Amino acid sequence: MALSAEDIQTVSAIWEKIYADVEDNGADVLSRMFKEHHHTVNYFKNFTQLQSVAETASAVDIAALAEVRAHGKKVFSALHDMVPHLTNVDALKETINPLAKKHAAELKVDVKDFRILFENLLDLIGEKQGADAKTAFKKVTDLIYEEIKAAY
Prior knowledge:
Radius of gyration: 15 Å
């Protein structure tokens, strides 16, 4: 699925606003994933704070954890590296492939859990920028998800 020049301009503006608050937004997306899909906590066994509070803490409390904030920033930075490549699928693949391969082979993350992450990102975009922004950015998450899946 290719994005039009207008799509890219729109989603780049959406992403710029979301990325401006990278640490809070990244932590928010991850904490929602952990609360709504508890099995995803298992991927982060080395996050001792998360492991100790995951079952009882609220999403807000989880988002405040330093390790969740740092990883949320890392996830959003990876996405930030992908957005400029939306015009060039080959360059996008080059950016995604190492990340996907590491998550598949080394970290043993189920590819379906990327869909969960993207759903939470889209919900955040919808809350902060409205339904039209959410709909527009879904094209990006669909494209990235398909490329991640292909690399698995």
